[in-house]
Design a protein that fits this description.
Mean pLDDT: 82
Radius of gyration: 24 Å
Largest sheet: 3 strands, antiparallel
Number of domains: 2
Distance between the termini: 85 Å
Low-confidence stretches: 1-15, 17-23
Length: about 300
């Protein structure tokens, strides 16, 4: 004879998980709404991004990777950034031919407080520096790495002119003591650049201690020696634009550089923001048709 077992009571763990999910639901809804607002703003400006995109970068990819980072659990600060600053960050990606986001690692939109307002700033990643260096006809390959305390690391700048680095993966998480980059040139010659920790810290301070150094210190340190290799390489215009954006000390400095390179897109974005604010004050948030009209006026610089 079979008996029907009463349903088992859920464990306390399941109740706790359900409770957390219910509590987080409003936060997820708010985050999704914010992402959708950013998406609508950027969708209306895809045409402008396409106009300035270089080196086969597609504007749809710029949007996709950015929205992906916003949806990440670590994307709260990026979602808080103004729509205009994120758009200008993507303009910077377009003119330099780099794709943003943690997945690609070529460039990042780094949240930064500017006069009390959270804004996104363009920051090139070390993979972006390598990608741009490889556009140089004089380079066959290039790579960079960091050296942790305890690694075997030897540099011979004499007749051997070589680097020996044997990483010990157990040293990950220890102090980074140096970084280096090695490039193989088209003529077969190999060149390298080594920077010790004092050199790297000096670069960090020169960059006004950007949040990128706090969030991705190893990647920023990998990037620094590649810059030093620039004396051996011939770069296109986009490299020099990216350098200027990297070296900008303030958000406003980046805006001025973008204006010079794009015929005033930063100014147009500010004008668009003012128009949208006035319309919202008069009649609530703009409709899709009104948003499209704002984008048109922005493109025409009116």
């Amino acid at each position: 004879m079979s008996t029907t077992q009463p349903p088992r009571a859920g464990s306390r763990l399941n109740y706790d998980a359900s409770s957390k999910a219910i509590q987080s639901a409003p936060q997820q809804t708010t985050a999704l709404a914010t992402i959708n607002e950013h998406k609508a703003f950027l969708d209306a400006r895809v045409g402008v991004l396409r106009e300035w995109a270089k080196n086969s970068v597609k504007p749809e990819a710029l949007l996709r990777f950015t929205l992906r980072d916003m949806a990440d659990e670590r994307g709260e600060k990026l979602r808080q950034c103004t729509k205009e600053s994120i758009y200008l960050g993507l303009i910077a990606c377009a003119v330099t031919g780099l794709e943003p986001g943690a997945l690609k690692g070529e460039a990042y939109l780094v949240p930064y407080k500017n006069k009390g307002v959270m804004e996104a700033t363009f920051q090139r990643g070390y993979k972006g520096v390598i990608k741009m260096a490889l556009r140089s006809r004089g380079v066959r390959s290039i790579r960079s790495n960091v050296v942790y305390e305890g690694d075997l690391f030897e540099v011979d700048e004499g007749t051997a002119n070589s680097i020996v680095h044997r990483p010990n993966f157990g040293n990950r998480g220890k102090e980074i003591i140096a970084a280096y980059a090695i490039a193989k040139l088209a003529n077969g010659e190999s060149v390298f650049e080594v920077m010790d920790r004092d050199d790297l810290d000096a670069v960090r301070k020169a960059g006004s201690d950007s949040p990128a150094w706090r969030d991705w210190p190893d990647q920023m340190m990998r990037k620094a020696p590649i810059h030093r290799l620039g004396k051996f390489l011939q770069f296109d215009e986009s490299w020099h634009i990216a350098n200027a954006l990297d070296n900008a000390r303030t958000v406003d400095d980046q805006r001025r550089i973008i204006d010079v390179e794009t015929g005033g897109e930063s100014h147009k974005a500010d004008l668009s923001s003012q128009i949208a604010a006035e319309m919202a004050a008069q009649a609530g948030d703009p409709s899709p048709e009104e948003a499209a009209e704002i984008a048109r006026l922005e493109r025409e610089g009116k």
